[in-house]
Amino acid sequence: MGEVAYHFDEESQRYLCDVIIFSPYRGQGFGDQGLKLLIQAATVNQLTTLFDHLAPGNPAVSLF
């Protein structure tokens, strides 16, 4: 249905997250569930902050 992940971005020196939900499954709460799991994983790994680059107008802004 999609994927969630985070990685360290050398250029920005930040941990960036990715939440990708395939279009047929959007709007069903999977993004919210995935983001919560991603935050749990980051917390276990002692990360306190995650960033994302969202394009202006991206409907995922409401998720974050």
Break the fold down into its secondary structure elements and pairings.
Layout: E1 2-9, E2 14-21, H1 30-44
Antiparallel strand pairs: 1-2
Organism: Enterococcus diestrammenae
Protein name: N-acetyltransferase domain-containing protein
The helix content, as a percent range, equals: 10-25%
In total, the number of strands is 2
Largest sheet: 2 strands, antiparallel
Q: pLDDT under 50 segments (min length 5)?
A: none
- Average pLDDT works out at 91
| Class of secondary structure makeup | alpha+beta
- Count the helices. How many? 1
How does this model look, in words?
The protein is an alpha+beta fold. The protein has one domain (2-56). Helices cover 23% and strands 25% of the residues. The protein is built from 1 helix and 2 strands; from the N terminus they run E-E-H. The longest helix has 15 residues, at 30-44. It is globular and about 30 Å long. The two termini are 19 Å apart.
How is this structure best summarized?
The chain is of the alpha+beta class and 64 residues long. It is built from 1 helix and 2 strands, in the order ββα.
